[in-house]
Every structure is written in structure tokens, then in C-alpha cells.
Amino acid sequence: MTSIFLRIYGGLLFTLVLVALLSSLAVTIINSVRIQEYRAEMARGTFRLVAMQLKNKPDSLQVLLLQQAEHLLGIPLELVKQPDTDAISKEDIRLLKSGDVKVIPLAEKQAHIYAWIQPGLLLRGTVSSISEQLAYGTLMLIKQHLISFPSAHREEQLQQLKDAFSYPLHMLKTSEIGLSPQHQQRLRDGHMVMILGPEGQSIKLYVGLEGGNLIGIDQGQKVLAVGPVWFLELYPLSLLVTIVLFVLTSVSLAIYILVRGLEQRLKKMEHAATSISRGNLDARVRVRGSDSVGRLAMAFNGMASHIQRLLSIQKEMIRGVSHELRTPVARLRFGLEMVADATSKEEQQKQLEGMDKDIQELDHLVDEILTYASLEQGAPVIHFKRVDIEEILSQVVNEQSHVNPSIAITLQPSYLSDQRRKADVERRYMHRAIQNLVANACRYANEKVQVTFSVGSDTCRIDVEDDGPGIPENEWDRVFTPFARLDDSRTRASGGYGLGLSIVRRIMYWHNGTAQVDHSSLGGAKFSLVWPRRKGS
Predict the structure, then answer these.
(1) Residue 24: helix, strand or coil by DSSP?
(2) How would DSSP label each residue in 311-352?
(3) What is the pLDDT, as a whole number, of residue 483?
């Protein structure tokens, strides 16, 4: 048998490969989306500032300003008329008018970025990465925009620009910056100063807003500060794979611990099944817990008990049938000898009639055996219908009254309504069960048999009583055993094969009911049938 571990870990290996592939694809897609979003965030303010400078300017001046911005930013820039591009939809135009930018990915990790200048005219730049040149150009563009206004209005202009940029913009006094002498010298020379943030995850950019000797002359001079600008941290595939491997390893270990116990319990069930197949019908599995394996063990034990019971019944039936067949067969053999030796037609006819009765007895025995076997070996075909139970009782009483004219069989009236007298039963089998009980009572009764039908809230009950010798309490369970006969006054001289009551009990079993025996107020035995009025209740 293939090990459960091999199947489970084979599934885990397949899951691992599948998760790795999906993770790689997911990381690639997520990083691609994040790069586009990052480009849009970083370029929004820059492109809006360029578009602002180009707005409503003469064509010649627009070309000059565009060339200057292109030189500062280090990326190709061009003016695009709106009808000339199919990449921009009406929804994109609406977003561009509101101050947003549109990023359209291209091949080789490049992207087009669009910004709104004026009706019918768009700014388009081709960006491959967010570089230091782009940061420097943006800083210079902001500086040029601010110094084009008087000092008193620069703070107000900076506040208007802040909404267009995704990172902070400030004007600080040189005394508030706290730069090193080297950085102060760079500012003094008119260069940009770039400072890495904690753990290198961000940068801050500084540039002086006034020319000349900035630092060291007047610590109240203003400096343009941009940032912190946070770098884009792509999700590394190796980290994700490591996490997946760790999770799957942990799950595998947990599954190993859990499945190991389950496999041991299943092996015990396998050993028990092997023992049963080798003839040890008493082998059982120890039931532990109420999980699936525990329920399987309970079902296995139930199956083993049922098989053992069926084999025991089979042996009893073989013994009983062989025993019951001997008497009519012996009588037939004797009858054949007597027919051969008969000296007259009258004597010959008498022997033939006896042989005919023996054949009828054999036929009846075979019918009983087949009926019992069909009820015992498996689920018979039963069609439940709403039936008037008192009508079946009346039919059985009339039939048995003709067969046993010497016995007074009475059916006690129930005085129930038509609906209350009805129950869900298989009419043929219920008729057979009642008939067996009444016939059995007539066989042992002295003079009287009484049949009573009653209905409870959810159940029906039939009592069949006789005034015969009764049944000792220590024999009540044995009377339902196939081919069982008692040793007292209920002897085999009364007839029967010992299958009638066994058939009754099996019929009641398939009706979810019970067959019981008790003492009768008439002095003999009382057999009772109790079952639900409605199927499934």
C-alpha cells in the first residue's frame, strides 16, 4: 500500500513548485505596478512644474523652455497635440486636467509620462528610471520658479507647489540645516547637496536660493529643502521564496506529526482486517477519539460484528435447514417405499396424499428460509406507504380464523379516526409480521387469541396475546433466534420451523421498530410490535 506520507509530501512538493511559480509571477506583477506608481508619484510634481512654465507661452518660448527643462532633467521631453495620441482616453484627459499625470509603460523598462499644459497640448517625457539627474533637474526647476518671484512671495509660491509634489518642500534658514563644512562649501559654490536618510532608505536635497557666498556670511539666508524622498524597495523574490519554504517546512513538520499518528491507527485497522480475512472473526480495532479515523474504526468494528453475526447465522441456518429437511425427506422416502408395496389403490392414494403434504411442507420451509435470508443478508427493497393498520389486522384475523376454526381470534376495536389508524409501512412485510405472530399464537393457544392495536403520539403498537402455556422470562431473547424452539410445553410437536419470530424481528428492524415478548393477562404469551408512525421519525 502506498504510504500516506508519500502521497501527502508529493502533494506538498507539487504545492511548493506551484507556489514558487505563482509567487514569482505575483512578485513580478506587483513590482511592475509599484514601479509605475512610484514613477507617477516622483514625476508628478516635476511634470506639473514644467507644464506650468509652458502654459500660455508663445511657441518659440515654449520650445526654449522645453529645451532648458530637458537639459536639466536629463530625459527627452516633447509637446504632443491631444488629437495626435491614441494612448490618452477621455478619462485620462479628465485626470490630467485635475493636475495628475498619466504613466504608460513601454518596452525595456521605459514609460511615457503625460502632463496637461493647455487645451489641445500635452507634455510627454520618456523616463526609464528615477535618477539623480532627474532629482537635480527638479530641484533646479523649483529654484528657478521661486527666484522668479520677489523674496516676500516665495513662501506663498512654495505652498502652491506642495500640492503637486508627493514629497515635502521647505524653505529653511541655513542655521536650521546643520550641514557639514563640505556640504556648506557645495552650497556656497551653487551646487546641490544630497543627504542620505537613516539606513539609506531616503534622501534630502538642498540648494541655495541666493547666489554668492551663502554659508558663513548670513545664517539667515534661505535654502530650498526637498524631501525626504523615499526610495522604492522592490519585493525580493528570494525573500518571498524563503518565507514560502519556511511556511511549507513548518506545515510539513506539523503534518508529519499529525499524520504519523493517523497512519499508525490505520495500520492497526489494516492488521485487524487481515486477521478477519484469515478467520479471526473476533478481531476488533480500539476506538480512540471522535475524529474521522475514530469514526472509521467504529464503522469497521460494526462491520466486523455484522459479518461475524451473518456468518454465525449462516452456520445456524445450515444446521437448522439440514435438520428440518431430514424429517420430510425421510417421510418422502418412506412414502415411496410404501407406495411400491401398496396392495390397493386406496392405500396407494393415501400414501401419495401424505407425500404431497411433505412436499408442501418442504415448499413452505424453503419459502421461510428465503424470506428470512432476504431480510437478514442486506437491505430489502421496501416501499413505505400510508396504510390503514387496522385493515391489515382485520384481514389477518379473518385469514387465521378460517385456518384455525377451533381458536377464538378477536380483534379489539381501537375506536381511532381514519387518519390515526394509518402509518408508513411496507404493507406486504407488515402483513407477514402480523400473520406470523397470530399464527404462532394460534399454534400454542388453548382457546383464545386476542389482537389489540393502539397509537401513541409518534408510534404504533400491536399486541398479540394467547391463553397458552406462555414463555419463561429467561427464554424471551432466544425465541427470536432462527430455528430456536423451547424445551417446555411449546415443543416441536406444535409445528413450525423456528423462523417465524426471527422474520418478525427483522421486518420490525427495517421499519425502525422492535418486536418484544411479555406475559399476557390471558395467561400465555404476549408479543408486541412497536414502530414509528412516520418513516424517518
Answers:
(1) helix
(2) HHHHHHHHHHHHHHHHHHHHHHHHHHHHHHH--SHHHHHHHH
(3) 63
